[in-house]
Specification:
It is a single chain. With 169 residues, this protein is mainly alpha-helical. The longest helix is centred in the first third of the chain and has 26 residues, at 3-28. A 3-stranded antiparallel β-sheet has the order 1-2-3. The protein has helices at 3-28, 31-54, 64-81, 88-106, 137-147, 153-165; strands at residues 110-112, 126-128, 133-135. It has 6 helices and 3 strands.
Length: 169
């Protein structure tokens, strides 16, 4: 075997070992860390997108949820004109992550989870309050895009906050 071929085989082996070790290390991380990182990244995309496309500032305040409702209403109107022009999944994921991050940052004892039993894997519920109420901000945003003002992120947040505050559910 030539020295060049041995070098290539050696480099491939090092890369493979590095990938395996990296994968194993990632598997050891708690799921919530990866989930938090994913949703925080998606929320940042919503902030950037709102600034770039809608010229509005999303600042992670509860009041900014009203602005999200307005942005999603515009998405709903575009969806009605041409459903293929709107990435319902993409927008509901980014803005849903933003909504969840607003809640997580402003409400005590609130955290993301990846899965839950009622909605299944990768439903990304926000577990809220001492009663462990499960809220679904990604789903709220999807409903807002598909159904327009028949569904309001602000109203859903307000109702869920009331339930969580009263320890209901």
């Amino acid at each position: 075997m030539s020295a060049r071929r041995l070098l290539v085989i050696g480099l491939v082996a090092v890369v493979c070992i590095t990938l395996v070790l990296t994968y194993r290390k990632r598997q050891e991380l708690p799921r919530t860390l990866k989930t938090d990182d994913l949703l925080q990244s998606l929320a940042s995309e919503a902030v950037d997108g709102a600034q770039r496309h809608d010229h509005v500032n999303l600042d992670y305040t509860v009041e900014s949820l009203k602005t999200v409702d307005e942005i999603l209403e515009q998405a709903h109107e575009a969806y009605l004109r041409n459903p293929n022009s709107v990435s319902v999944s993409g927008l509901s994921s980014t803005y849903g992550a933003y909504v969840g991050e607003v809640i997580r940052r402003n409400e005590r004892r609130t955290r993301w989870e990846r899965d839950d039993s009622p909605r299944g894997q990768m439903s990304y519920p926000l577990v809220w309050g001492p009663a462990r109420l499960h809220a679904y901000p990604l789903e709220w945003c999807r409903e807002r895009i598909l159904n327009g003002d028949k569904f309001s992120v602000w109203s859903e947040y307000s109702q869920t906050k009331q339930l969580a505050s009263n320890g209901i559910l």
